[in-house]
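Late entry, 5-O-phosphono-beta-D-ribofuranosylamine complex.
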Amino acid sequence: MINIAVFISGRGSNFIALHENIKKGVIKNAEISVVFSNKEDALGLDYARKENIPVIVIPSKDYKDRHEYDNLIVKSLKPYNIGLICLAGYMRIVTDELISAYENKIINIHPALLPSFKGLNAQKQAVEYGVKFSGCTVHFVDGGMDSGAVILQKVVEVYDDDTEETLSERILKQEHIAYSEAVSLITDGKIELSGRKVTIRK
Ligand code: GRF
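Prediction complete; structure with ligand written out below:
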């Protein structure tokens, strides 16, 4: 059984999708042991509380030093024996304090086909660039911005009349599927990481 910590900053739909799929048995050998948020008013916290999932909130606005902040996170996660951290709309760059405490155990979902359209507003970037396909990427987290090894990607077609909103909506549906698939691969022990190459064992 792998204890998962999900990190959120807002709506939390990816967190909810993961939790639903654990409840349904689509993701096996895993439990969401705690939800961490850097924002007190993150909507996803309401769902966590309703589902009796422990919640940790440390408002990031109170901390100027990212390293001090991440150290605090490491300390607060200790009691939960976390084997996997899933960043799900967590709007903070994580520092080495967290990355080294959970080496190759932190993953993220990004709403574009990396390495295209890193950073904020990836769907808007895709619409404005005029690409014909975008999608989402689940990847390991390293010290860079959306730069870690890719675990899996889902492609979404971009239509001529797409806006940031319509594309975001279609990508989000794929995110919910992709994140659960990626977590399953990890909890089933099917992932091998070598450098920046991820191999999936059949
Ligand atoms: C998602 O599009 C995710 O890819 C991005 O932030 C958004 C979070 O949505 N990193 P939600 O909070 O999971 O609903």
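The radius of gyration is 16 Å. Will revisit in the morning.
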